[in-house]
Design brief:
294 residues, alpha/beta, six-stranded parallel beta sheet, two-stranded parallel ribbon, 12 strands, globular
Length: 294
Protein backbone atom coordinates (compact mmCIF):
# COMPACT_ATOMS: atom_id res chain seq x y z
CA UNK A 1 0.00 0.00 0.00
CA UNK A 2 1.44 3.37 -1.06
CA UNK A 3 2.07 6.16 1.40
CA UNK A 4 -0.75 8.68 1.76
CA UNK A 5 0.03 12.39 1.48
CA UNK A 6 -2.20 15.01 3.11
CA UNK A 7 -2.16 18.46 1.48
CA UNK A 8 -3.62 21.23 3.61
CA UNK A 9 -4.57 24.51 1.97
CA UNK A 10 -5.31 22.36 -1.05
CA UNK A 11 -7.60 24.88 -2.73
CA UNK A 12 -4.88 27.53 -2.99
CA UNK A 13 -2.57 28.24 -5.90
CA UNK A 14 0.34 26.20 -4.52
CA UNK A 15 -1.82 23.46 -3.01
CA UNK A 16 -3.40 22.72 -6.37
CA UNK A 17 -0.04 22.44 -8.06
CA UNK A 18 1.24 20.13 -5.31
CA UNK A 19 -1.78 17.88 -5.87
CA UNK A 20 -1.17 17.91 -9.63
CA UNK A 21 2.47 16.93 -9.11
CA UNK A 22 1.48 14.11 -6.76
CA UNK A 23 -1.00 12.87 -9.37
CA UNK A 24 1.83 12.81 -11.92
CA UNK A 25 3.76 10.57 -9.52
CA UNK A 26 0.69 8.36 -8.96
CA UNK A 27 0.84 9.16 -5.25
CA UNK A 28 -2.27 8.77 -3.11
CA UNK A 29 -3.13 12.29 -1.97
CA UNK A 30 -5.86 13.76 0.20
CA UNK A 31 -6.86 17.31 -0.73
CA UNK A 32 -7.81 19.19 2.44
CA UNK A 33 -9.11 22.71 2.03
CA UNK A 34 -10.12 24.94 4.93
CA UNK A 35 -13.55 23.33 5.16
CA UNK A 36 -12.08 19.85 5.35
CA UNK A 37 -9.28 20.55 7.82
CA UNK A 38 -8.87 23.57 10.09
CA UNK A 39 -5.14 23.34 10.80
CA UNK A 40 -5.46 25.36 14.01
CA UNK A 41 -8.13 23.03 15.43
CA UNK A 42 -6.61 19.95 17.12
CA UNK A 43 -9.88 18.07 16.80
CA UNK A 44 -10.12 18.71 13.06
CA UNK A 45 -6.51 17.68 12.51
CA UNK A 46 -6.88 14.59 14.70
CA UNK A 47 -9.91 13.45 12.72
CA UNK A 48 -8.04 13.85 9.43
CA UNK A 49 -5.08 11.84 10.71
CA UNK A 50 -7.27 9.07 12.08
CA UNK A 51 -9.19 8.80 8.81
CA UNK A 52 -6.33 9.04 6.33
CA UNK A 53 -3.17 8.01 8.26
CA UNK A 54 -0.86 10.24 6.18
CA UNK A 55 2.86 9.50 5.92
CA UNK A 56 3.56 13.03 4.64
CA UNK A 57 1.77 16.31 5.29
CA UNK A 58 2.39 19.30 3.01
CA UNK A 59 1.09 22.40 4.78
CA UNK A 60 0.10 24.95 2.16
CA UNK A 61 -2.50 26.51 4.48
CA UNK A 62 -1.48 30.06 5.36
CA UNK A 63 -2.65 33.56 6.17
CA UNK A 64 -1.11 35.45 3.23
CA UNK A 65 -2.76 38.86 3.61
CA UNK A 66 0.49 40.58 4.57
CA UNK A 67 -0.94 44.05 5.20
CA UNK A 68 -4.01 42.85 7.10
CA UNK A 69 -1.75 40.93 9.47
CA UNK A 70 -0.42 44.23 10.83
CA UNK A 71 -3.76 44.88 12.54
CA UNK A 72 -4.93 41.25 12.81
CA UNK A 73 -1.78 39.56 14.04
CA UNK A 74 -3.63 37.24 16.42
CA UNK A 75 -5.75 35.92 13.57
CA UNK A 76 -2.72 35.51 11.32
CA UNK A 77 -0.84 33.75 14.12
CA UNK A 78 -3.66 31.25 14.52
CA UNK A 79 -3.16 30.05 10.94
CA UNK A 80 0.58 30.62 10.48
CA UNK A 81 1.80 29.72 13.97
CA UNK A 82 -0.77 27.61 15.78
CA UNK A 83 -1.67 25.65 12.64
CA UNK A 84 1.85 24.30 12.05
CA UNK A 85 2.17 23.60 15.78
CA UNK A 86 -0.99 21.47 15.75
CA UNK A 87 0.06 19.67 12.58
CA UNK A 88 3.54 19.02 13.97
CA UNK A 89 2.09 17.49 17.14
CA UNK A 90 -0.12 15.19 15.08
CA UNK A 91 2.80 14.22 12.84
CA UNK A 92 4.90 13.39 15.90
CA UNK A 93 2.14 11.19 17.29
CA UNK A 94 1.63 9.34 14.01
CA UNK A 95 5.24 9.25 12.80
CA UNK A 96 4.58 11.42 9.76
CA UNK A 97 6.79 13.84 7.84
CA UNK A 98 5.74 17.50 7.78
CA UNK A 99 6.67 19.93 4.99
CA UNK A 100 5.95 23.48 6.15
CA UNK A 101 5.90 26.26 3.54
CA UNK A 102 7.40 29.49 4.87
CA UNK A 103 8.65 32.82 3.53
CA UNK A 104 11.56 35.20 3.04
CA UNK A 105 9.71 37.61 5.37
CA UNK A 106 11.25 35.80 8.34
CA UNK A 107 14.44 37.74 7.53
CA UNK A 108 15.05 41.44 8.09
CA UNK A 109 15.50 42.04 4.36
CA UNK A 110 18.59 44.21 4.73
CA UNK A 111 21.29 41.78 3.58
CA UNK A 112 23.72 42.36 0.72
CA UNK A 113 24.10 38.71 -0.28
CA UNK A 114 21.60 35.82 -0.44
CA UNK A 115 20.35 34.62 2.93
CA UNK A 116 21.64 31.16 3.85
CA UNK A 117 19.29 28.64 5.39
CA UNK A 118 20.92 29.04 8.82
CA UNK A 119 21.28 32.84 8.80
CA UNK A 120 19.71 34.68 11.75
CA UNK A 121 16.06 35.60 11.30
CA UNK A 122 14.59 38.99 12.17
CA UNK A 123 11.13 39.62 10.75
CA UNK A 124 9.98 43.23 10.48
CA UNK A 125 6.31 42.56 9.87
CA UNK A 126 3.50 40.81 11.70
CA UNK A 127 3.22 38.36 8.81
CA UNK A 128 6.91 37.50 9.11
CA UNK A 129 6.61 37.02 12.86
CA UNK A 130 3.68 34.64 12.50
CA UNK A 131 5.44 32.59 9.82
CA UNK A 132 8.57 32.38 11.97
CA UNK A 133 6.44 31.08 14.83
CA UNK A 134 5.26 28.31 12.53
CA UNK A 135 8.82 27.46 11.53
CA UNK A 136 9.93 27.20 15.14
CA UNK A 137 6.98 25.00 16.08
CA UNK A 138 7.76 22.54 13.27
CA UNK A 139 11.51 22.40 13.82
CA UNK A 140 11.14 22.19 17.61
CA UNK A 141 8.48 19.48 17.59
CA UNK A 142 9.90 17.43 14.69
CA UNK A 143 13.70 17.68 14.81
CA UNK A 144 14.05 14.57 12.63
CA UNK A 145 10.98 14.72 10.37
CA UNK A 146 10.16 18.44 10.12
CA UNK A 147 11.01 20.38 6.97
CA UNK A 148 10.65 24.13 6.43
CA UNK A 149 10.72 25.32 2.82
CA UNK A 150 10.94 29.10 2.51
CA UNK A 151 9.69 30.64 -0.70
CA UNK A 152 8.87 34.09 -2.12
CA UNK A 153 7.26 35.99 -4.98
CA UNK A 154 4.99 33.08 -5.91
CA UNK A 155 3.01 33.10 -9.14
CA UNK A 156 0.98 30.51 -11.03
CA UNK A 157 -2.04 30.00 -13.22
CA UNK A 158 -4.26 28.88 -10.35
CA UNK A 159 -5.22 32.25 -8.88
CA UNK A 160 -4.49 35.97 -8.89
CA UNK A 161 -0.89 37.07 -8.39
CA UNK A 162 1.55 39.79 -9.47
CA UNK A 163 2.48 38.20 -12.80
CA UNK A 164 -1.12 37.64 -13.86
CA UNK A 165 -1.98 41.20 -12.80
CA UNK A 166 0.81 42.63 -14.96
CA UNK A 167 -0.34 40.54 -17.93
CA UNK A 168 -3.80 42.03 -17.51
CA UNK A 169 -2.59 45.60 -17.01
CA UNK A 170 -0.40 45.48 -20.11
CA UNK A 171 -3.58 45.28 -22.14
CA UNK A 172 -5.25 48.29 -20.54
CA UNK A 173 -2.45 50.67 -19.44
CA UNK A 174 -0.19 52.77 -21.65
CA UNK A 175 2.54 52.81 -18.99
CA UNK A 176 3.12 51.19 -15.62
CA UNK A 177 5.16 52.49 -12.66
CA UNK A 178 6.67 49.51 -10.82
CA UNK A 179 8.84 49.31 -7.71
CA UNK A 180 12.55 48.94 -8.46
CA UNK A 181 14.02 48.99 -4.92
CA UNK A 182 12.90 45.55 -3.70
CA UNK A 183 14.98 42.57 -4.82
CA UNK A 184 13.71 39.02 -4.79
CA UNK A 185 13.19 35.80 -6.72
CA UNK A 186 10.06 35.13 -8.76
CA UNK A 187 9.00 31.53 -8.14
CA UNK A 188 6.59 29.44 -10.24
CA UNK A 189 4.30 27.35 -8.06
CA UNK A 190 4.78 24.38 -10.41
CA UNK A 191 8.53 24.43 -9.73
CA UNK A 192 8.03 24.77 -5.97
CA UNK A 193 5.45 21.96 -5.97
CA UNK A 194 7.96 19.70 -7.70
CA UNK A 195 10.60 20.38 -5.05
CA UNK A 196 8.15 19.83 -2.22
CA UNK A 197 7.16 16.46 -3.63
CA UNK A 198 10.75 15.43 -4.25
CA UNK A 199 11.76 16.55 -0.77
CA UNK A 200 8.92 14.55 0.77
CA UNK A 201 9.92 11.49 -1.21
CA UNK A 202 13.53 11.91 -0.11
CA UNK A 203 12.39 12.30 3.51
CA UNK A 204 10.51 9.01 3.30
CA UNK A 205 13.58 7.37 1.78
CA UNK A 206 15.78 8.75 4.54
CA UNK A 207 18.01 10.69 2.13
CA UNK A 208 17.01 14.26 3.03
CA UNK A 209 18.06 15.70 6.40
CA UNK A 210 15.30 17.53 8.26
CA UNK A 211 15.51 21.30 8.61
CA UNK A 212 15.33 24.40 6.46
CA UNK A 213 15.45 24.57 2.65
CA UNK A 214 14.98 27.58 0.37
CA UNK A 215 12.51 27.04 -2.47
CA UNK A 216 12.81 30.11 -4.70
CA UNK A 217 13.70 30.69 -8.32
CA UNK A 218 17.35 31.12 -9.22
CA UNK A 219 18.90 34.51 -9.83
CA UNK A 220 17.28 37.73 -8.64
CA UNK A 221 15.47 40.79 -9.93
CA UNK A 222 13.14 43.60 -8.85
CA UNK A 223 9.42 43.95 -9.43
CA UNK A 224 10.35 46.43 -12.16
CA UNK A 225 12.71 43.94 -13.79
CA UNK A 226 10.11 41.19 -13.56
CA UNK A 227 7.46 43.38 -15.17
CA UNK A 228 9.76 44.31 -18.04
CA UNK A 229 10.37 40.61 -18.67
CA UNK A 230 6.62 40.02 -18.66
CA UNK A 231 6.15 42.75 -21.24
CA UNK A 232 8.93 41.29 -23.38
CA UNK A 233 7.30 37.86 -23.33
CA UNK A 234 3.99 39.48 -24.32
CA UNK A 235 5.68 41.12 -27.30
CA UNK A 236 5.07 44.54 -25.73
CA UNK A 237 7.57 47.38 -25.39
CA UNK A 238 9.40 47.02 -22.03
CA UNK A 239 10.01 50.80 -22.08
CA UNK A 240 6.35 51.20 -21.13
CA UNK A 241 7.38 49.97 -17.66
CA UNK A 242 8.90 52.76 -15.57
CA UNK A 243 10.85 52.38 -12.30
CA UNK A 244 9.64 53.86 -9.05
CA UNK A 245 10.30 53.43 -5.32
CA UNK A 246 8.52 51.65 -2.49
CA UNK A 247 7.68 55.05 -1.02
CA UNK A 248 5.35 55.65 -3.96
CA UNK A 249 3.28 52.64 -2.90
CA UNK A 250 3.19 52.96 0.89
CA UNK A 251 1.75 49.84 2.53
CA UNK A 252 0.97 48.99 6.17
CA UNK A 253 3.50 46.13 6.28
CA UNK A 254 7.16 46.76 5.44
CA UNK A 255 8.44 44.76 2.47
CA UNK A 256 11.93 43.25 2.52
CA UNK A 257 14.25 45.42 0.44
CA UNK A 258 16.36 42.33 -0.14
CA UNK A 259 14.65 38.96 0.05
CA UNK A 260 17.07 36.88 -2.02
CA UNK A 261 17.61 33.37 -0.64
CA UNK A 262 20.54 31.00 -1.08
CA UNK A 263 19.92 27.39 -2.10
CA UNK A 264 22.98 25.48 -0.88
CA UNK A 265 21.17 22.98 1.32
CA UNK A 266 19.41 21.15 -1.52
CA UNK A 267 22.70 19.42 -2.30
CA UNK A 268 22.63 17.48 0.98
CA UNK A 269 19.29 15.99 -0.12
CA UNK A 270 20.55 15.17 -3.60
CA UNK A 271 18.04 17.57 -5.19
CA UNK A 272 18.96 20.43 -7.50
CA UNK A 273 17.64 23.93 -6.67
CA UNK A 274 14.86 25.55 -8.68
CA UNK A 275 15.92 26.86 -12.11
CA UNK A 276 16.56 30.50 -13.01
CA UNK A 277 13.46 32.67 -12.68
CA UNK A 278 13.59 33.78 -16.33
CA UNK A 279 13.57 30.24 -17.65
CA UNK A 280 10.70 29.33 -15.36
CA UNK A 281 8.65 32.39 -16.32
CA UNK A 282 9.01 31.58 -20.00
CA UNK A 283 7.88 28.00 -19.38
CA UNK A 284 4.92 29.16 -17.30
CA UNK A 285 3.86 31.96 -19.60
CA UNK A 286 1.40 30.19 -21.96
CA UNK A 287 -0.68 28.96 -19.00
CA UNK A 288 -0.52 32.36 -17.30
CA UNK A 289 -1.69 34.20 -20.40
CA UNK A 290 -4.46 31.65 -20.97
CA UNK A 291 -5.64 32.09 -17.39
CA UNK A 292 -5.63 35.90 -17.53
CA UNK A 293 -6.77 36.40 -21.13
CA UNK A 294 -9.12 33.48 -21.86
Amino acid sequence: MSAVWLVTGAAGMLGRDVLARLADEDVTAVAADRKAVDVADPGSVRAAFEEHRPAVVVNCAAWTAVDDAETMEASALLVNGTGPEVLAAACREHGAVLLQVSTDYVFAGDAEKPYAEDDPTGPRSAYGRTKLAGERAVLGTLPDTGYVVRTAWLYGAGSGNFVRTMIRLEGVKDTLDVVDDQRGQPTWTVDLADRLVRLGQAALAGTAPAGVYHGTGGGETTWFGLTREIFRLLGADPERVRPTTSAAFARPAPRPAYGVLGHDRWSVAGIEPIRDWREALEAAFPALVAAERP
